[in-house]
Amino acid sequence: MAIQTILIYPDDCLRQVAAKVEDPKADSIKALVQDLADTMYDAPGVGLAAPQIGVSLRLAVTDTDWKNGRYEEAEGAQGVRNLKVWINPEFIWKSEEMASYEEGCLSIPEYYEEVSRPAVVRLRWQDLSGAFFEQDFEGFQAVALQHEFDHLDGKLFIDYISPLKRNMITRKLKKHFK
Ligand code: NI
Q1: Fold held by 12-176
Q2: Of 72, 103, 138, 148, which is the active-site residue?
Q3: d(Cα 18, Cα 153) in Å, to the nearest integer?
Q4: CB 115 within 8 A of CB 161
Q5: Centroid of ligand 1 to alpha carbon of 10 (angstroms)
Q6: How many whole angstroms separate alpha carbon 28 and alpha carbon 31?
Q7: Mean pLDDT by 10 residues, the chain (178 residues)
Q8: How far, in Å, is the centroid of ligand 1 from the Cα of 27?
Q9: Helix (H) and strand (E) counts for the chain?
Q10: Is 143:116 a contact under the CB 8 Å cutoff?
């Protein structure tokens, strides 16, 4: 178990385009997934991408279930958590229909803004065995996945809000965390 430091915007690593994971079966990737999961649950958050702990690779973890009451009901119990690992994720289709959710980010603490994104997405990704999967996602899962995978392209949810609000958040975070 290794909880890593979560980088805070405007750290440069958060703006880089991450590199493809060449060997999902590598021990180093398994260790990275463990670190990401430990750090995400500790934060606590529902998703964390590798660039947020300073590793510029196309990999993220999510658990969109554990904060929906299921975790509280069985605190301490293993198995309630529903960790998902996404390696080299790629959206192969997005709906024209949009949906809005209030988003936050562990790298942009204490700020929440309404963001509009495609309501349904079709994703292709690999798991730790290197196998490929394809599936459609909607609702909060679609939001979480689009948010996390934006991190792999150096994008943040504040890129979708007005420049005025974004500049205000940038100024405040610079003051607090530098
Ligand atoms: Ni984020």
Answers
A1: Peptide Deformylase (3.90.45)
A2: 148
A3: 6
A4: yes
A5: 12
A6: 5
A7: 92 96 98 96 93 98 71 49 94 98 94 96 98 96 96 97 94 82
A8: 25
A9: 4, 7
A10: no
Number of other CB atoms surrounding residue 137 within 10 Å: 18
Residue ranges of domains in the chain? 12-176
121 token code pair: 């997405």
Contact 176, 11 (CB under 8 A): no
> Closest by alpha carbon to 124, among 115, 112, 133, 136?
133
Structure token pair of residue 142: 């679609």
What is the distance in A from the centroid of ligand 1 to the CA of 107? 6
The pTM score is 0.92
Structure tokens at 41: 């649950």
Is 72 in the active site? no
How far, in Å, is the centroid of ligand 1 from the Cα of 1?
22
Distance 156 CA to ligand 1 centre (A): 7
Torsional sign, CA 140, 141, 146, 152: positive
Q: How far apart are CA 108 and CA 154, in angstroms?
A: 14
